[in-house]
Design brief:
This protein is mainly α and about 260 residues long. It is built from five helices and no strands. The longest helix is centred in the last third of the chain and has 67 residues. The termini are far apart.
Length: about 260
């Protein structure tokens, strides 16, 4: 009976350790996924996918650990000769699993911060590009053709309106950059905010300069137009006076 009991316990221990190895394999996969979740080489989107994979592995690991707990308690309750070893194995697995969960939580926080940073960089870059593109377009404006002045005025008014509408987003992006910088102290954040501020100031300054130039040109156009009208009037008067003088001369000669 003792030999049979010992043989059954040996078999039970082998099966227990087989299941332990399967659980360890799952925990090893958790380790690999956590490393990828923490890797800055991956985009936030990729790291989020890794997080979802980790969550599936966690469910699998917990199911295996729950089964092992039942088996371990049964073996220990049956006064298994390796009860202490079984208990140590379970303690080690549970500790490792808990550490993986804590590490994954840290990685998840890092992923959220990385995603937040990426969104800030995307929003900041998009607005900066829009400001620069409009500045480039303004720089190419020409005042050579007076017939284009009304269209240019409408364009300037529309651009001023767009700038006003974008100011809340501009302020929001700067505030978000300051908040992120307080947490991460990332030099990339500060440089992007500075570039955005410069693009915003440059466009406003250029728009103001272009408006002044356009106003001067429009005044000059109006003055030239009045001058031409005056010349036509003088010419008409001169023609009329010449005709009257000629008529008087003819009247005198015919007497």
């Amino acid at each position: 009976d003792d030999r049979a009991k010992l043989l059954n316990q040996c078999r039970a221990l082998q099966m227990f350790k087989r299941d332990v190895r399967l659980a360890e394999n799952t925990l090893n996969k958790q380790d690999d996924i956590i490393s990828e979740m923490k890797s800055p080489a991956h985009t936030p989107e990729v790291r989020i996918k890794k997080l979802h994979t980790f969550e599936k592995l966690t469910a699998l690991a917990e199911a295996k650990l729950d089964t092992l707990k039942v088996t371990a308690h049964t073996l220990i309750d049956d006064d298994h000769y390796a009860s202490n070893e079984i208990k140590d194995i379970m303690d080690s697995l549970q500790t490792r699993h808990a550490e993986n969960l804590a590490s994954a939580e840290e990685a998840e926080d890092a992923i959220r911060e990385a995603k937040r940073l990426q969104k800030f960089l995307d929003d900041c870059g998009e607005l900066t590009q829009w400001l620069k593109e409009n500045a480039d377009s303004l720089s190419e404006e020409s005042l050579r053709d007076p017939s284009t002045y009304p269209a240019l005025m409408k364009r300037h008014d529309a651009l001023k309106s767009e700038l006003t509408n974008n100011e809340p987003q501009f302020d929001q992006i700067k505030a978000e950059g300051a908040n992120i910088n307080d947490i991460t102290n990332n030099p990339m954040v500060e440089s992007n905010v500075e570039e955005l501020q410069k693009a915003f100031d440059d466009l406003n300054d250029l728009l103001e300069e272009k408006e002044k130039d356009l106003q001067k040109a429009e005044k000059a156009r109006i003055a030239e137009e009045k001058l031409q009208d005056l010349k036509v009037l003088v010419a008409d008067l001169d023609t009329a006076l010449s005709s009257q003088i000629l008529a008087l001369i003819l009247v005198v000669l015919n007497r």
